[in-house]
UniProtKB/TrEMBL annotation, chains A, B:
Protein name as it appears in the record: DUF2520 domain-containing protein
Residue numbers spanned by region Disordered: 258-279
The DUF2520 domain, residue ranges: 129-252
PANTHER family assigned to the protein according to its UniProt record, in alphabetical order: CONSERVED HYPOTHETICAL ALANINE AND LEUCINE RICH PROTEIN
Gene source species: Butyricimonas paravirosa
Amino acid sequence: MEQQDKIILIGAGNVAHHLAGALLKAGENLCQIYSRTLDSARQLGMKTGISYTAEANEVYPDGDIYIFCVSDDVLPSIIKTIRMPDNALLLHTSGSQPMDVFKSYSKHYGVIYPVQTFSKKRELDFREIPLCVEGNTGPVKERIKKFAEKLSGKIYEIDSAQRKELHLAAVFACNFPNYLYQVAGKLLEDKGLSFAMLRPLIFETAHKVMLLNPEEAQTGPAKRGDESIMNMHKNMLKNDKDLLKIYTILSEGIKETQDKEETGDQKISQDTIDMPTLW
Amino acid sequence: MEQQDKIILIGAGNVAHHLAGALLKAGENLCQIYSRTLDSARQLGMKTGISYTAEANEVYPDGDIYIFCVSDDVLPSIIKTIRMPDNALLLHTSGSQPMDVFKSYSKHYGVIYPVQTFSKKRELDFREIPLCVEGNTGPVKERIKKFAEKLSGKIYEIDSAQRKELHLAAVFACNFPNYLYQVAGKLLEDKGLSFAMLRPLIFETAHKVMLLNPEEAQTGPAKRGDESIMNMHKNMLKNDKDLLKIYTILSEGIKETQDKEETGDQKISQDTIDMPTLW
């Protein structure tokens, strides 16, 4: 029987939380969880039943795979604090850190970047999450790919430059829309209305682009070129300079895309994924 | 047996398309569809099997309910062109037009504003769409409410000022996020990557706020205060001034909300709706 790789998880935040679950579900040999914050380490350790520590010098030094799920800004400094065998496979899950951050620490390293937003409170099917893999050599990349395939059905091989762009695109596709949901909720709250009134709209807006391209799905006053409504909206926002700026620049963007579309300048990929219809 | 109200639908765009389906599904007596554009009138007429016209003077002058589903900017001028009985109930579906646009034309008028984004290509369950109703008198409002209840299970009574705000919030919750999906797709396309890679992320981002508040759901570099990533992103966008502006202002917004949250300044409604888990 093949000996299973001993896996050490470095980090106990949102990504680590979901990855730990996926590893266990896939029957992988997750041996230890490390976080600099004892509470976080304990929380994930207790949840998974895996041994945990908040002391860097207690991290098992004989692991086969070390997966770093920590913030980009602390990744380089945390790598330094962990003793690892020369021949261990070192991985991180960052969208923006180069693979070479591991260069001085092992001959086998790479990246598994999950294109998803993670919150501890939300359960996710990890097998549906696109995982972008990269490895420092061909064989290492193959090994990482095989490993990733145990966790997800959607594996993409991309390089560091593409991954950086993907991460930036993900900010536009996820973090910024979510912030706009916050803005919308705040506007409603100020008039005694509930955020719940927008939920079907938000859901449908996202659901639409599972099948259509966002260009085809675009609606609203800017798309229609309805200047009188846009002026009214700007007037309603005149006491909130920041929101007014957001409204103006995004509306201008929609109008420009619209103009390009009409002259046939713009199109994006037609691939769609199958989504069940909820309503 | 009670005589059914004769309903005339004015408009054949996205909203009219879905509303016509909902009326027929509810067993309502939709008699005629009018659009200034013959092709649109014919398309919806053929789809529903309802008689249609593109001539304002051919609109039946003996309807009981006239529902105006037309762009805000043409609504006032289109109302003028239609002959209608003094005692007809006049409704529009606009988020921003005041109810009083009908004042000179009937004693019974109001609004049914559906809080949703409509595209002809997408099927929707109209019963799940929040309908915001308003009427010019108490009894008229009751009549409109009863009528709306045949179409949807989610009826809200709100006034014109609230409706305007709701419409503005809907632009932030729907039109702008969809535009950001476009931006994300364009960024990927430039690097030979497919928009499809972002679909699970977009879907989960929306799905999260079906249960969580957007404040709780927020993730990303701005939320974490990760300045090095944000600076890298800004650098990647340095040749596209508009995107750079969008990135900067939305990131600033997230950081500010984050600061407020930490001092306990901000919260929005905790109501959630039940959503099936897809993954």
